[in-house]
Automatic annotation (TrEMBL):
Residues 359-507 are annotated as: G-domain. SUPFAM superfamilies: Initiation factor IF2/eIF5b, domain 3, P-loop containing nucleoside triphosphate hydrolases, Putative DNA-binding domain, Translation proteins. PROSITE patterns: G_TR_2, IF2. This is Translation initiation factor IF-2. Belongs to the TRAFAC class translation factor GTPase superfamily. Classic translation factor GTPase family. IF-2 subfamily. Transmembrane segments: none annotated. GTP binds at residues 365-372, 411-415, 465-468.
Amino acid sequence: MSDVTVRSLATLVGTPVDKLLEQLAEAGMSFSGPDQVVTPTEKIKLLGFLRRAHGRSEAAAADAAPRQITLKRRKMEELTVPAGKGKATVNVEVRQKRTYVKRAEIESPQDDEREEAQRKLAESQARNEAENAALEGADQKRRDELARQRAEEEAAAERARQEVEEAARRAAEETAVASEERPRRAHDADEGRAPVVRREPAPAPRSDKAARPARPARGGGRDNAGGRTGRGELHLSDAGSARRGAKKRPTRREAGRGATGSHSFSRPNAPVVREVAIGDSIVVADLANKLALKGGEVVKALFKMGVMATINQSIDHDTAALVVEELGHTAVRATDTDAESTLIALTGEIQGEVEPRPPVVTIMGHVDHGKTSLLDYLRRTKVAKGEAGGITQHIGAYHVETPKGVISFLDTPGHAAFSAMRARGAKLTDVIVLVVAADDGVKPQTVEAIQHARASNVPLVVAINKIDKSDANPDRVRQELIQHEVLAEEFGGDVQMVPISAKQGTGIDELLDAILLQAEVLELTAVRDARAAGVVIESSLDKGRGPMATVLVQRGTLKKGDYLVCGTQYGRVRALFDESGQQVQEATPSIPVVVLGLSGVPDAGDDFVVVEDERLAKDVAQQREAKRRETRLVKQAGNRMEDVLAQMGQTDGQPQQLNLVIKADVQGSVEALRQSLTALSNDLITINVITSGVGGITESDANSAATAKATIIGFNVRADASARKVIEANGLDLRYFSIIYDVIDQVKQVASGLLGKEVREEIIGVAEVREVFRSSKFGAVAGSIVVEGVVKRHKPIRVLRDNTVVFEGELESLRRFKETVDEVRAGTECGIAVRQYNDVQPGDQIECFERIEVARTL
Ligand SMILES: Nc1nc2c(ncn2[C@@H]2O[C@H](COP(=O)(O)OP(=O)(O)OP(=O)(O)O)[C@@H](O)[C@H]2O)c(=O)[nH]1
């Protein structure tokens, strides 16, 4: 494209050059002469000037500019083109082509200008929109505020009116919904406005949309509500209809929220009220678990109620129920353990054909009147001999077979065993054989036996023993018995009296006949073909066989392979042995049998019952064990010396009582302890010695302690087995000492409220000395069997003889089959050598203990 000069431009537009130069000058462009080149921009500028001069807009001129330039620049040219065989010359009008590259170059400054202008325009628009939105938001807020105030006024008026109209409850609900929605609507409106402000260049429609959620609060809301009135009315009560028009009804969405979502939105969650099942007692940690609380919180709550308990302590039902209520939950009494009730349901009703069963007999009588001799005679002569390798030990019961029938004897002569059985409600015995020595007559224990028989409604058969003796006088016995209302048949009574000699065997068959006759009168029967149930007579831990229990089957048939629950133990019958040590496959009613296969050693007097599956057996046993443990813990609580102190100050200024039972090895110690301990009484605590004496701790000592909730102090003496049972059953606090100063110090510290560390002795095992060997290295070595716990090497020990400490020292050597071992567990034999002590004797007990430091707690 050729350059356009002022002259050529003047020619093109038909304007004299001078005029054009003038016009260019007027348009702000000075040209030195007519031959100066005019750029397209300058031409556009000139055109704009000329247009303005003619009253036309610059924009229109700008729009037209490219067209004008293109269209007006044309020229006629001649072109030679092929035509047939020759060539032809044609005239063509050539429009001068605008080079768009060039045009872009021209336009680029103009584009920049336009973009700048557009940017400013957009900014201005955005500012306007933001301002509008802000204004709209402010307006909206104002409108919402007004709407809220109006709604409040309306609601207040509504409430007042509805109170008058006695539609209080429904009105209150609606008002609550309305008042809950208001803050939410305001919140919605705020949220709607906020994004507009933040998104500055947001387009206008969006700001409208954002503002929309607030609309229902204005007149539009009423329109909406009006549109939905038909649907809404279906759910309106009369009271609701009466209010129509007076108040904006919530939109469907709002109503939905009001009905369901309002709680989670405007109110805190309602506290969860848990229903907690509590049995007779519960451990604090378990209770916390049930309440979904931390143990510490429950301990704290208990503390506030004045109950001091640690997390592992058991609290009784009433205390637990109180703390549960205190914590805002509900306590219910736990129905008896599930597994136990399942067991009762399963075993409660034994159906089947009843058949006669042998009688179970207990032999009673005064000391030395011949009970053991009678049992021995029967065993020797009437019980089949055991095979080698069978169980040869005493099993507590046996049965004898006579031509006229079978009789089972409980081989536990003595009143204690009988009363223990009776105390457990176990009616084991069908007949009591009362042995009275013909040379000695009726004695106190004879009378006691009569009373037992009467109390438990068990018939008597009297065996008048020792008739072989020259001074025997059976008639005197009969006479004396009349005084106790035991009338012989010979005298018209109903009691059979058989003269016997246990030593010579005289009259034994007659005695057995008499027992069977008595049994016939009793018409003893039991179901035979059923799952077995019965009672444990005796139990022990055999080192080879594990726990062994002699049980008496009372109904059903106990078979090898049966699953059974036995007190707190369970298991599967691995083997059954009869009293002669022979394996048997089953045991029928009234037959005693030794059971192997239990998980542990049950207590004498425990019931056993056969169940179908092991799972149930295990569950029941475990639940019973847990219950027993809890009961023991509850009993223990409050019995310890420290607990007595903890209760101090809770008895309205009355001094607290600390009761003690003191037993010591010698009278001197008893007196010393009694005097020094009672002297420790002060204003806060009175120390009473309930019982004291020389010798081991007996059952009667333990019973006294249980009655008085006393702490038992054993000074160089120990509790015997029956005392330990009472102590354990009652959770009594039993403490052994060997230094008088320690006793006084401990009681003094407790009494004066001193806390701190306390060194306690814990007996970890007891071994019984069977034989004593001599060793060149160790001197006397006690061949012993560990009967309880575990005996450990290098631990302190005490040697006890008749439950009295005879030596205290250290266990020097502990061996099993010539091998030195570190410890020996219960039921295992071992050799024990005690450092610097060679006087050990068979029958002694070696008690192994540990000294542990425990923190005193209140
Ligand atoms: N002559 C004679 N002596 C007998 C007879 N029965 C028992 N004895 C003796 O009486 C003493 C006591 O007999 P036990 O069988 O131990 O009496 P117990 O009633 O079992 O005595 P405790 O177990 O202490 O209650 C023993 O010395 C027996 O030998 C008998 O029929 N005739």
